[in-house]
Design brief:
- The complex is a heterodimer of chains A (608) and B (74).
- In chain A, 41% of the residues lie in helices and 14% in strands.
- With 608 residues, chain A is α+β, with helices and mostly antiparallel strands.
- Chain A folds into 3 domains: 7-203, Aldehyde Ferredoxin Oxidoreductase,  A, domain 1 (4-Layer Sandwich); 231-424, Aldehyde Ferredoxin Oxidoreductase Protein, subunit A, domain 2; 434-498 and 517-607, Aldehyde Ferredoxin Oxidoreductase Protein, subunit A, domain 3 (Orthogonal Bundle).
- Chain A is globular and about 60 Å long.
- Chain B is mainly β and 74 residues long.
- Chain B is built from 1 helix and 5 strands; from the N terminus they run ββαβββ.
- A 5-stranded mixed beta sheet of chain B has the order 2-1-5-3-4, covered by helices on one side.
- The mean pLDDT of chain B is 87.
- Classes of the chains: A alpha+beta (608), B mainly beta (74).
- The interface between A and B is medium-sized, with 29 and 18 residues.
- Bound molecules: iron/sulfur cluster.
- Iron/sulfur cluster binds next to loops of chain A.
């Protein structure tokens, strides 16, 4: 198989058994790679009802045909597992340089199974694979672990590690790599922690065979040229994802004080421009990227450094906590990364707790003495640490995610727990942006934006409209955008630099030897989307429409201030969106794929 | 001398396929966008003579203004 490494590495943490098997050709044909390989193998191999933090769950890392290749941003891999946070499908994309080394070492997927009796790390040097003792690393922050391994093995070794958050099974613990890149969402770090696997260290020196070397060189160069010629290159490289902060504030999409509004009076203090001036010291990118969006920052007040904050963290740990201070946001980011908890989920949890505190639902007795008002920077730092260590009453409560926390505390706090399917919502306030709201409701991992970033479409066609065209747009984005996570490449060159997506077609063909149009690839995207839905259904007996509901805040409480003051999407419109969505997807009224849809997508067999 | 507004990305469609247009100085960027029919809320970024400005910036003689569409945010 051209364009693939050719093998799957299987590591049983319980027995220490390590084996290799060829990558199945039919899996490559039908699921291509990356998140496609992830869900296919998860569905097949993890038994129904497996405990997400138990020995039956697996953590599956997959590269794609574009990973490690001469392609802008070909440095992405996918981490798939059953999510301990949501009980459904989790897939987290990670950039940096890990993916390329993994592919050069010879692996399309690494499947981690079982639970180790003691802390270990996995060392992969091409075909030589070892599980080694990690007792001395247990308890350490992810950055320290990376520094230690870089010193021990050398600069070219790539490391993915968990922090104390993963060890302590914080349900939204993340996996860190490259001093600031994460497999962030859904608790992949908790699954790694449950397996007592502290880190993976990888070095690969092999090459990947392509079908047409000259065509590959030409197609790759055409993609790089398109990036270099892109009009927005300078601005994108200067600001990265923080470029949208001021715009989100202006249009009422910036999460503010637990999503009670979409504009923040202190917004200017956390805009990308402010950040660039005040804390950024250099740019930092992933493997083969011509437009590095990572911003490396120095927070002088704290004497610390971080890669970031990027937009999501600015939204969730800045405005959403009422914090108008870019150095403080940077420091909160650093703490969360090092401790190994997802900044988006942690930001939501802290914001929910702050709202509870301000409303008198939580008191100082519940917060372990923290004065948990919006804007309190020191309390935020303390709470992030408590969460990662499951320390104190509140830290332990919030480590289970905002949905479970609100169910335990009650008193109406469930209505302002901002989540879908148990996953905390990422950085767009959706009081009045119906496509974006639908994108969150139906995203296949929970309330995450990356599958369908539809908010500009809302502003183009009318933000509160509820029409079939908006639904069609969301579905198209959901089928198409995650294909980058399947192919193992970054989507931001297409999203941000607007390069022509058709430039990827000859590159894919030259690499794999198979001609596939974007329509063909969107069909794969659709199959994957439906298979993730089947996984949710299989793992949760009552799965259906009730799981696709947004936080009531978006249909009950119009913001009092900002660009969306007084605006709301009605509950009836929320249901109409779902009706149209299910119909267009070929799902029944409860949101379950019909037999005819499964048949059409070649999923009938796997579903039975 | 009028100021020149250069549109990037999807904003070009509002200039009927042209890349740039002239507007009188003295207007704010926001007003200039309205005159040109470019929806202000789709503009993420305003750069005047290579320096980023807010939409309340008042156009000066012969300013060169780049307006960029909102990008994807991740
Ligand atoms: S745009 Fe950003 S995320 Fe994408 S490859 Fe480049 S540095 Fe990585």
């Amino acid at each position: 198989m051209k364009g693939y490494a050719g093998s799957i590495l299987r590591v049983n943490l319980a027995t220490g058994q390590i084996s290799k098997e060829p990558t199945p050709a039919e899996m490559a044909r039908d699921y291509l790679g990356g998140r496609g390989f992830g869900i296919y193998q998860l569905f097949k191999e993890v038994p129904k009802g497996a405990d997400a933090l138990g020995p039956q769950n697996k953590l599956i890392i997959s590269t794609g045909p574009l990973s490690g290749m001469l392609i802008p941003g070909g440095g992405k891999c996918d981490w798939t597992t059953k999510s301990p946070l949501t009980g459904g499908y989790a897939s987290a994309s990670m950039g940096g340089h890990f993916t390329a080394e993994m592919k050069y070492a010879g692996y399309d997927s690494i499947i981690l199974e079982g639970v180790s009796p003691k802390p270990v790390y996995l060392l992969i040097e091409d075909g030589k694979v070892q599980l080694l003792d990690a007792a001395h690393l247990w308890g350490k922050g992810a950055f320290d672990v990376e520094v230690e391994f870089k010193h021990k093995y050398g600069e070219e070794y790539q490391i993915a590690a968990i922090g104390p958050g993963g060890e302590n099974l914080v349900l939204y613990a993340c996996i860190n790599h490259d001093f600031g890149r994460q497999a962030g969402r859904g608790g992949v770090g908790a699954v790694m922690g449950s397996k007592k696997l502290k880190a993976i260290v990888v070095r690969g020196t092999k090459s990947v065979e392509v079908a047409d070397p000259e065509g590959y060189r030409k197609a790759g160069m055409a993609l790089y040229k398109a990036c270099k010629d892109a009009e927005g290159l300078a601005e994108w490289t200067r600001y990265g994802t923080t470029v949208v902060t001021s715009w989100c504030d202006e249009v009422g999409a910036l999460p503010t004080r637990n999503f009670s509004a979409g504009s923040f009076e202190g917004g200017e203090k956390i805009y990308g421009q402010t950040m660039r001036k005040e804390i950024v010291i250099t740019d930092k990118g992933c493997f083969g990227c011509p437009c590095p969006c990572g911003k490396y920052s120095h927070m002088k007040r704290y004497g610390t450094y971080v890669e970031g904050p990027e937009y999501e963290t600015i939204g969730l740990m800045g405005s959403n906590l009422g914090i108008a201070d870019i150095q403080a946001v940077g420091e909160a980011n650093r703490l969360a990364d090092d401790l190994g908890v997802d900044t988006i989920s942690a930001g939501n949890c802290v914001a929910w707790a702050m709202e509870c505190y301000e409303k008198g639902i939580l008191t100082k007795e519940d917060t372990d003495g923290l004065e948990l008002k919006f804007g309190n920077i020191e309390a935020t730092f303390a709470l992030i640490k408590n969460i990662a260590h499951r320390q104190g009453k509140l830290g332990n409560l919030l480590a289970d995610g905002v949905k479970r926390a609100a169910e335990k505390i009650g008193k109406g706090s469930e209505r302002f727990a901002i989540q879908v399917k148990g996953m905390e919502q990422s950085g767009y306030a959706t009081h009045s942006a119906t496509s974006m709201l639908l994108a969150y409701m139906t995203c296949d991992v929970g309330a995450h934006h990356n599958r369908a970033w539809a908010i500009t479409y809302d502003l183009q066609v009318g933000r509160s409209l509820v029409v079939p065209e908006k639904v069609a747009r969301v579905i198209w984005l959901q089928n198409f955008r995650p294909m980058f996570d399947v192919l193992g490449a970054c989507r931001l060159q297409w999203v941000e630099l607007s390069i022509d997506r058709d430039l990827y077609v000859p590159a894919m063909e030259a690499i794999t030897g198979i001609h596939r149009t974007w329509e063909d690839m969107e069909a794969v995207g659709n199959r994957i989307w439906n298979l993730t839905r089947l996984f949710w259904m299989r793992e949760n007996e009552d799965f259906g429409r009730s799981w696709d509901q947004p936080s009531p805040r978006f249909f009950e409480e119009p913001p009092k201030t900002g660009a969306t003051a007084g605006q709301i999407t009605s509950y009836e419109d929320v249901q109409r969106l779902l009706d149209m969505y299910y119909e267009q997807r070929g799902w029944d009224n409860n949101g379950l794929p019909t037999p005819a849809t499964l048949e059409k997508l070649n999923l009938a067999q796997i579903a039975s | 001398m009028p100021a020149t507004i250069k549109a990037y990305g999807m904003l070009k469609t509002y200039l009927h396929g042209q890349n740039e247009a002239s507007v009188e100085h003295g207007l704010t960027i926001r007003q200039a966008l309205a005159v040109l029919g470019i929806p202000s809320e789709l503009v993420a970024f305003v750069i005047v003579n290579d320096e980023q400005k807010s939409k309340d910036y008042c156009l000066q003689d012969a300013d060169i203004v780049k307006v960029m569409a909102v990008m994807g945010g991740g």
